[in-house]
Amino acid sequence: MIEFKNVKKVYADGTEAIKDFSLSVNKGEIVTLIGPSGCGKTTSMKMVNRLIEPTAGEIYINDKNINDYNIHELRWNIGYVLQEIALFPHLTIEENISIVPEMKKWKKKKIRERGKELLEMVGLDPSTYKNRMPSELSGGQQQRIGVIRALAADPDIILMDEPFSALDPISREQLQTDIRKLQKEIKKTILFVTHDMDEAMALGDRVCLMKDGEIIQVDTPQNLILQP
Ligand code: ADP
Ligand code: ADP
Asked: Which residue intervals define the domain ABC transporter in the entry (predicted)?
């Protein structure tokens, strides 16, 4: 699980990006963070894998303070899917998926099997796709590879920062369906940033509404609909 306790972030120029942020994302849960541009979504996300240091407060992963982890151990246990499609253009799809498992020194056979299994999970035939280059795939397919690459080494935690924003509506819907299907099988702890309310409601077990660096409300989509 991920736990933010009274986290605050003031940037060097004085911008108060996060004010008093406390939130738990339970094991196997998807929490969507939603709010207007500049409300602090990306900042809170980047603090989890220590790309940004909080000014105050603590963050725990699986009940251990993130500062007490070895930084590599921490980041290997967190899959991060970015807004921009970020596959390595000179590596094949299989090589892209294998990067983190290789760093973790998984056996070659295990890495190959994992790659095959993941491609199948998102509906891409491994024999057709594993040796292709990213440029030979559509935007939606590339982003799907970005998602399974983040899952490849079996991290406990997945952070997704507007992973679908560059996609057309149809690919977007397809990927939302994929994520929900994947989540049923893998039960990861997922923090998902979006500025699209429909997406936040469709994907989140709970939705966290943010404004100006603060949480306004956290609730299930059903309860949010009932409370205007
Ligand atoms: P969101 O992801 O919701 O769009 P961000 O977390 O990116 O919001 O930004 C929150 C606030 O912090 C914004 O006002 C943004 O301009 C500011 N900000 C983000 N990064 C920096 C930075 N490196 N230095 C100063 N201010 C920043
Ligand atoms: P998003 O809204 O998608 O989070 P932004 O365009 O706000 O992205 O920010 C892009 C990058 O610029 C981020 O790495 C963020 O930390 C940085 N940034 C955003 N606002 C500021 C700022 N006021 N000063 C310095 N860096 C900033």
From this structure: 2-228
